[in-house]
Amino acid sequence: MIKVVFFDLDDTLVDTTKLAEMARRNAVENMIRHGLPVDFETAYSELIELINEYGSNFNRHFDYLLRRLDLPNNPKWIAAGVIAYHNTKFAHLKSVKGARKALLELKKDGFGLGVITDGDPIKQWEKIIRLELDDFFDNVFISDYLGVKKPHPKIFKKALKKMDVGPSEAVMVGDRLYSDIYGAKQVGMKTVWFRYGKYANRELEYLEYADFTIRSLEEVIEIVRGLNLEEKECADTEVHAD
User: What is the domain extent for residue 212?
Assistant: First the structure.
């Protein structure tokens, strides 16, 4: 029987990709507004290239942007970028449509709920708390805190052990076929691929590892209920056969 449902965070529960793009664009525009002597397309393309190289959790994107553009370090321009970025993030952060309903129904049904996510612990907790999702979860597992990233089996095994369930008693829901679906399947969990966001048409070579594919998080409710119903019917059949 399924006892626990794990969710990825970014682009599964939290609409991250659209937010990040908007925040980065607003940051560059505000830097230009406050004197950055570069056109938007040049500055924005350099910023995206920098993020791809150093990762989204690097904390000196705007400092390095000036270096890449061969410009002097200017605290005013950097501050303008930081302010616009954070103001956008705070104003437009939102959960994915259907996320809260899915969590509420699963909680009502008595399932344990957890998050397994990669990223910076403070940033990930900030998203969860700002959206007031923290009360739904029994545990939150974040790669940079645990020292292991998805799809490494250790992060899934750590989560299963903490939640006191076996792999066959847990479901993993995520938007990435490689890190979420392939990773969870390798340890024996049921997997639900949420085809959403920037990975909706990527990593398709791992599609075979998805037990289910969904377009709405509300579908998770019936999937989990259905899995347990099937298990119950099989158990009843075995009892009657005896």
Answer: 4-15+95-241
